[in-house]
Design a protein that fits this description.
Elements lengths: L15 H20 L5 H7 L5 H29 L1 H20 L4 H29 L2 H32 L4 H20 L14 H12 L2 H22 L1 H8 L6 H26 L1 H25 L6 H27 L6 H25 L6 H22 L4
Helix pairs in contact: 1-5, 1-6, 1-7, 2-3, 3-4, 3-5, 3-9, 3-14, 4-5, 4-7, 5-14, 6-11, 6-13, 9-13, 9-14, 9-15, 11-12, 11-13, 12-13, 12-15
């Protein structure tokens, strides 16, 4: 594997396997904080007097909105003060938000706590991405991120099982106890083993003019914006499925205790794709893999739309899961590669670049998901329409990113 010190002379400070495991654990706080909540959404809505299922969906979608806000702050902070301090402050804020959620007596307070959690967890997310970018770039970065994705995807597979197990033996509030324990463990491991990757000579003192100039520069980069928009479109359709997954599998399909296993099966498709991508990207390249994955993603959208309409909005569970597995596999090929290609031009502002890309894609995805979920109630047509439309839009955004300006 080829490694580069993209913005500093720092070499990879940890063995590759430990580095991948540590970065995956830090970034997995995001997935854990989302997916462990899924089995509890109905009970939370009932206990806290949620006004509608759509309000309960905000427990998931607002988390991404909070992350978008947090990344805008932590990106420049990471470039100015270093990666380690960014992760420390982020974890402290995350734990504070976790306690707000634990003691919440209304859905509004819980949602506030979720936003605080999300702002905090964006610190480790941004700083981890910057640590990776400090040490890897291009195909090597895509490869590392793909292998991180293999471990990362175990969390979405196991988190609903964890949430369901907690609810079986304890109260749903104890799910938040799991969150702060994982935050403490991951933080302790990071500060024990991982040195700072941004040397003082390469830090950029925060200034509003530099911030606005950098954001304006990013907005004008065809490659950054094209791939970021493509990511936001694909992720928006996926987030609509994710935030509405309990409605899909518990209310529409009545899977009962099988819900975490069905959810894990679909999450495995993304993990499998990330693993294979890590092996293929060095040979085929990111662009080739993305181009082919987008074609198959559009085919998936057409197929899902067709079977959903044929079965009056609710295809048989086995057919729905099989089709989704196919689609999620190719989405798994897209996530790491699109992000790596969007990050390619921003090595000189890796923290701000990661924050800008993460915030932009999150805000776009949350908006898309909230619109789709408004129509999700008794059938899967909104989900099918979302995957079809936004896979096509994502394809168009990638073509824009690839176009050479004369």
């Amino acid at each position: 594997m080829t490694t580069t010190a993209a913005t500093t002379s720092v070499k990879p400070p940890l063995p590759l396997l430990e580095f991948i495991a540590l970065m995956a654990l830090l970034t997995s706080l995001v997935a854990l904080s989302i997916d462990a909540m899924l089995p509890a959404l109905n009970q939370i809505g009932s206990d806290l007097n949620s006004q509608s299922p759509q309000q309960t969906y905000l427990v998931i979608s607002l988390f991404f909105g909070g992350m978008a806000l947090g990344q805008i702050f932590f990106g420049p902070f990471s470039d100015a003060r270093g990666r380690r301090l960014t992760i420390l402050i982020g974890l402290i804020i995350f734990i504070m938000g976790t306690f707000v959620c634990y003691f919440a007596q209304s859905i509004e307070v819980l949602l506030l706590g979720r936003v605080i959690q999300a702002v905090g967890v964006s610190g480790p997310r941004v700083a981890s991405m910057a640590v990776i970018r400090d040490q890897y770039e291009g195909k090597a970065m895509a490869r590392v991120m793909s292998f991180i994705g293999v471990i990362f995807i175990l969390v979405p597979m196991l988190a609903p099982l964890v949430g369901q197990a907690v609810m079986q033996y304890f109260h749903w509030r104890e799910i938040f106890t799991v969150f702060w324990i994982v935050a403490v463990i991951s933080g302790a491991w990071f500060f024990w083993r991982q040195p700072e990757t941004l040397i003082r000579a390469n830090r950029k003192k925060f200034a509003w003019r530099h911030f606005t100039d950098s954001c304006w520069w990013l907005l004008k980069q065809r490659q950054v914006m094209g791939y970021s928009v493509a990511m936001g479109f694909i992720f928006g359709a996926f987030l609509a499925y994710l935030s509405g997954s309990q409605t899909i599998f518990q209310d529409i399909y009545d899977t009962g205790e099988w819900f975490p296993l069905v959810f894990a099966t679909l999450a495995f498709a993304i993990g499998l794709a990330s693993f294979l991508n890590g092996m293929m990207v060095m040979k085929w390249g990111m662009q080739t893999i993305c181009d082919r994955a987008l074609l198959f993603s559009m085919a998936f959208g057409i197929t899902l739309m067709s079977i959903t309409l044929y079965f009056d909005g609710v295809p048989p569970l086995w057919l729905f899961v099989s089709t989704m597995f196919f689609g999620f596999f190719f989405m798994g090929m897209l996530f790491g590669n699109l992000n790596a290609m969007a990050m390619l031009p921003v090595g000189h502002i890796a923290g701000l670049g990661a924050a800008f890309i993460g915030s932009f894609t999150s805000l776009l995805a949350v908006t898309i998901a909230m619109i789709i979920n408004i129509f999700l109630a008794t059938d899967l047509i909104p989900i099918a329409v979302g995957f079809l439309l936004f896979s096509v839009f994502s394809f168009c955004a990638v073509q824009y990113a690839k176009k050479i300006e004369v």
